[in-house]
Amino acid sequence: MTHLKDIFIKTRHITVYGLIMAIFVFALKWFQWKFLVLDNATEIYAGLIAICFTLLGIWVATQLAKPKIEKVLVEKEVYVTLPAGIEINEAELKKLNLSGREHDVLQLLTKGQSNTEIAGNLFLSLSTVKTHVSNLFVKMDVKSRAQAIEKAKRLKITP
Amino acid sequence: MTHLKDIFIKTRHITVYGLIMAIFVFALKWFQWKFLVLDNATEIYAGLIAICFTLLGIWVATQLAKPKIEKVLVEKEVYVTLPAGIEINEAELKKLNLSGREHDVLQLLTKGQSNTEIAGNLFLSLSTVKTHVSNLFVKMDVKSRAQAIEKAKRLKITP
DNA sequence: TTAAAATCGGTACTAAAGTATGAATAGCGT
DNA sequence: ACGCTATTCATACTTTAGTACCGATTTTAA
């Protein structure tokens, strides 16, 4: 089935070309009969044919044009991130007036750890961590750990 | 200079076309004079013009046609150390293979916004944001928005 | 013209986060 | 000794986040 379809597609342009040519010839004959084309108008007659069939040729060519496949070699740069200078903004950190334990919690919190993970690492209960975290949010003037992390990173008060 | 050259290149085909057309008309006139073309041979006359100018059109089209180039990208990894800056690490960002919307969500997520806030800013439903966020976590290989923010900041894939 | 994504949205559920409040203990400075 | 803060932990509760499904378009790629 696809084979017949391909043949049709390949010969479609030729068929269309033939049809248009036939219609054009009929149209010319009609004009010839209607206006009794003068002999000295041959140049105009030829010119019209030339223009029309030139355009037709261009159209046919664009339809038949096959895409040229061209392989292009592209180099892809892969960046290697190096642990850049870790400078902590001590001034901003002092402004927050955090307690020692709150500071500990903040360190782990900004590393993306959950309350349970922080509790495990600092040997605290989940309740205690929640308390510290809540107090942290008040001192940092944020409403979620997401904001806390963003602010801590932005102010560089954590590595 | 290159500008004039471009104009010449672009008009070259038209010039050639005009010249060929002129020569063809002269040839026709010569044939007309030489063999005293009969009135009832108009169809043959028109047919010749049609065929010739169709071929001419095809030729012109092939000359003017821009070659359709099918690029095949071959990646060659080149390792480069990142010039420690505040620039966004596009390379790491590409590795994540995020979709457009996921990228949008990530931008707001890393600013500390909640799902509800993101939904409001991007005019999406909460469900959609949750879907995007979940997919983000898979692609970023993290398990919470806190880790996502931390990783995004660490890899500098967000301002 | 398929097939694979991306996009948007929904429901239902579990897990985690966050709030509020209270309470016990230890240390520190006046 | 007293007040103050820090630290620890608990209970109870509400809210948010997160997962796991699903379906319907739409866009894109092969």
General description of the model:
The structure is a homodimer of 159-residue chains. By secondary structure, chain A is mainly alpha-helical. Chain A is 67% helix and 8% strand. The first copy, chain A, has 7 helices and 1 strand. In chain A, helix 4 crosses helix 6 and helix 5 packs across helix 6. The radius of gyration of chain A is 40 Å and the shape is rod-shaped. The two termini of chain A are 67 Å apart. The N terminus of chain A is likely disordered. Chains A and B meet through helix 1, helix 2, strand 1 and helix 7 of A and helix 1, helix 2, strand 1, helix 3 and helix 7 of B.
| Shape type of chain A | rod-shaped
Strand content of chain A: 5-15%
Count, helices of chain A: 7
Secondary structural class of chain A: mainly alpha
As a whole number of angstroms, the C-alpha radius of gyration of chain A is 40 Å
